[in-house]
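worker-03 picked up job from queue 'complexes'. Input manifest follows; two sequence lines, order preserved.
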Amino acid sequence: VVGEFELLAKVRERLPAAGPRVRLGSGDDAAIVVAEGATATSIDAFVDGVHFRRSTASLEQIGAKALAASLSDLAAMGAEPGEAYVVLGVPADLDEDGCLELLDGIAGIAAETGTTLAGGDVTRAPALTLAMTVVGHAVSADDLVTRGGARPGDALAVTGELGGAAVALLEDRHAEPPLRLDAGRTLAAAGATAMIDLSDGLGGDAGHLAAASGVRLEIEAAALPLTSRLAELPPRSNPLQLAVSGGEDYELLVALPPQRFEAAAAALAPPAGPGLTRIGAVLAGEGVEIRLPGGGILEPRGYDQLRPGPERR
Amino acid sequence: VVGEFELLAKVRERLPAAGPRVRLGSGDDAAIVVAEGATATSIDAFVDGVHFRRSTASLEQIGAKALAASLSDLAAMGAEPGEAYVVLGVPADLDEDGCLELLDGIAGIAAETGTTLAGGDVTRAPALTLAMTVVGHAVSADDLVTRGGARPGDALAVTGELGGAAVALLEDRHAEPPLRLDAGRTLAAAGATAMIDLSDGLGGDAGHLAAASGVRLEIEAAALPLTSRLAELPPRSNPLQLAVSGGEDYELLVALPPQRFEAAAAALAPPAGPGLTRIGAVLAGEGVEIRLPGGGILEPRGYDQLRPGPERR
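worker-03 finished. Artifact:
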């Protein structure tokens, strides 16, 4: 059903005009979309107490983060954002105004990224729950970048800065995911062979990319673009460990032929772009090694060992 | 994310082979699908205590019902089922075996309908929660049937039988939604001008179709194809009221030019098809009138007034 979403009508002024592919949006049994080419589709769930806490973020921030984090998967494919479909599970203590605030956050990111909110479903639920399906587009399936194409000899690079989300988490602050959709498409066009967004942490997500590509990744810790905010933490916290193990930075980890790196970095150069930093190399073999300047190896810890409280399954 | 769905690998033997449009299924940031033509996309949420009860249905039945009910929206568009994306919100008292049983139910319906389970996300949640996104396909957007195309003069018809789900509900039995995907496509090809699946009850869903089409629907109560199981109920229950107000029959309500009705009914004739019964007419005006044989008018009650306990928002 896409029909039982009267709430959407109330935030329509904040919604972007439906994209040209959307022939029928919210309000019928299903949305109708005409896509010439290939689609990339991802679904993500966000549950209060697991993925966010209503105590440390406003409802608008929660809605914005849910869509931004979902779109991060499309960024990592190099897809153009198209449509989003939203389930809201609403607990007894959230009234219509609260739902509207949440939808306002979603609508703001939709407008910023040109995403059409094409449908949804609203239901009661014991805890605030969002399920987001996002659909991105590309001219052909070959234009989309999977995790599985990295080859020995490729350079390994990362967009933006790392560690900001871990700092925010430790300080009980809300972290807004950056939107790397343009960067993702730029990297896809620049010849990226494999790409993944950093939702679980560099250590873990590098492991996913290495496994999917059947390669070994060697990362130089000294090369990591750490946020200066890590310096705000007490000295006994391990900033490097945090930046490597902390999730939700939502930057892009990308493999690409080394001769393509300079052009890609120039295309993403600040201040217009997030920056692109070469952090290591792709080798034959398997697994991920993060090499410390002194010669040692950093073992990334799981994100769940850093984050206080409950964690995603 | 489509990656964090290792559970799917364990039911893979029950999964149908990926459809020809699916270039990359579960396991990357997003699934890649190449659709030539138009897509119909719908999202539905199912929460324990709201849409089902674990006390009256097995986990396999719950999974099967969630996908079948979701696909019913595609049936009502006349779309060919394509891909499904599943969020599982798993409470503390549901172990991996339970999740597998649930997925087994989903996989069974996927196999029966030729739907590819192309991705998903698993998270902890305070109550068992499923969010299902289903994507159907058609050669062109014009081949899909909305709720909004009924015209004065059209005949109004319904597939199968009505009232079975209401009987099951009152008897605390599990009702399995019928799969009307083939019927929906047959009706679309036969010239259906508007279509909707009966999830909220004939009265309510006819109202949705009437409003979307800007027409008035007159339904003859005596013509309704009531299930013989209504006779099992105690005499003081009102079988007709139940059949009209009870939801979740998941049959199709369809408007079509009267000269097209006979061919459509022949194409859906039992035993191969579910049957198609003419139940009324489309007129200029607005609203829905269900006329009793004696000349009175039946007021459909809301489904929530029939169903014991909590109800969807």
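worker-03 released lock.
The radius of gyration of chain A is 20 Å.
Confidence is low (pLDDT under 50) at residues 303-313 of chain A.
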